[in-house]
Design a protein that fits this description.
Elements lengths: L15 E4 H13 L5 E5 L9 H6 L4 E3 L4 H13 L3 E7 H4 L4 H10 L4 E6 L17 H6 L5 E3 L4 H14 L3 E4 L4 E3 L14 E4 L4 E5 L4 H13 L4 E5 L2 E3 L3 H10 L2 E9 L4 H12 L5 E6 L9 H7 L4 H17 L1
Parallel strand pairs: 2-3, 2-4, 4-5, 5-7, 6-7, 10-11, 10-13, 13-14
Antiparallel strand pairs: 1-8, 6-12, 9-11
Helix pairs in contact: 1-7, 3-5, 8-12, 9-10
């Protein structure tokens, strides 16, 4: 069932807020005003991370490593070991690969509460191509013990996730894209790490999504609603620990399930959800929508989303196909 105050009404258009990174930076500034031990460490990414205002206001609370992601993580682990609240900010495509060993050993294995912040995640870098796409980060980090993984879907989830990371005292990975985000929540909505949120309810099709893939799923639910199809949209903002109960409930209460992710379909939300259902013995028509195992097409983020069906129209068609195939069977 829905948790907190969410926009349960099907609306004609979502209102658009700001990029999550702006909210991230402002939230850090607000916390830094009350906590001189809060530090931001960047790898020549204060600009792309929207951290210039933070640096101007708190120049003694930001550390610049240059383009040296492994050093970034090692330094952050050292600072956290001294009791600092650390947010290590770097492009997700490099943070999760170049410094994977440091994340595994210096942060997770050593149990230092570093907040790793992967910016411009997924295919946010667009035409810069596969070298700059981060469609592997969740797969890699889900396999590392002792790390929480969160990918906010809007500004509210971002605000709450940053606060939760600062207070968790555990290794944390926050995943942010670049574009302005729609407002999916009402003011004052609840948010709990490890507990998915139902944005719209329905018992025909369930979309389970995270991050920037949630908005097109929500918009697809609007289109389906006008066709008399009830769509449940679940924001699975926490990828680890996954809300297994929400996945199982969606499969038991809906006729079909579609997972949607700005990530490879290997090792991400789709495979994690399928594993939960297989282990519980829950059979339901199921489809993964994401980036397949191929050379990713070149183009803007919107171009790539359209190509792989991560759009309102693409998900609408996917939902109708899976429901129609079930009727034939």
């Amino acid at each position: 069932m829905p948790q907190g105050n969410v926009n349960m009404e099907i609306t004609d258009k979502l209102t658009t807020g700001r990029p999550n990174l702006e909210v991230y930076s402002e939230t850090l500034s607000a916390m830094a005003a009350e906590n001189s031990d809060l530090l931001v460490v960047t790898s020549d990414s204060r600009g792309s991370g929207k951290l210039v205002p933070f640096a101007q206001k708190y120049p003694e609370q930001i550390v610049e490593t240059g383009i040296a992601e492994q050093n970034l993580v090692g330094i952050s682990a050292g600072l956290a070991s001294c009791g600092k609240t650390v947010f290590a900010t770097s492009p997700a495509c490099f943070l999760a690969t170049r410094s994977l060993e440091q994340i595994k050993n210096d942060v997770a294995y050593s149990d230092y509460p570093v907040n790793l912040v992967g910016i411009s995640a997924g295919v946010s870098y667009g035409a810069l191509g596969s070298t700059h796409h981060s469609i592997h980060d969740i797969a890699a980090l889900r396999a590392v013990n002792n790390i929480i993984i969160v990918a906010p879907a809007d500004n509210h989830e971002t605000l709450m996730a940053v606060r939760a990371a600062a207070a968790s005292n555990k290794p944390f990975y926050l995943r942010f894209g670049k574009k302005p985000m729609p407002d999916l929540y009402d003011e004052g909505a609840g948010f709990d790490i490890g507990k998915a949120t139902v944005l719209t309810d329905g018992d025909d099709i369930a979309f389970i999504a995270f991050g920037e893939a949630v908005a097109p799923a929500y918009e697809a639910a609007q289109l389906l609603y006008r066709e008399g199809v009830g769509a449940r949209v679940i924001s699975m903002h926490t990828l680890k620990p996954l809300d297994n109960e929400a996945v199982i409930r969606a499969a038991l209460e809906c006729k079909a399930v579609i997972t949607v992710e700005e990530h490879s379909i290997f090792g991400g939300l789709g495979e994690a959800s399928a594993a939960v259902l297989m282990e519980e013995g829950v059979a339901v028509p199921f489809r993964r929508v994401g980036i397949p195992d191929e050379y990713t097409v070149t183009g803007s983020q919107s171009d790539i989303f359209r190509h792989y069906g991560i759009t309102a129209g693409g998900l609408y068609e996917s939902a109708l196909r899976i429901l129609k195939s079930q009727l034939k069977d």
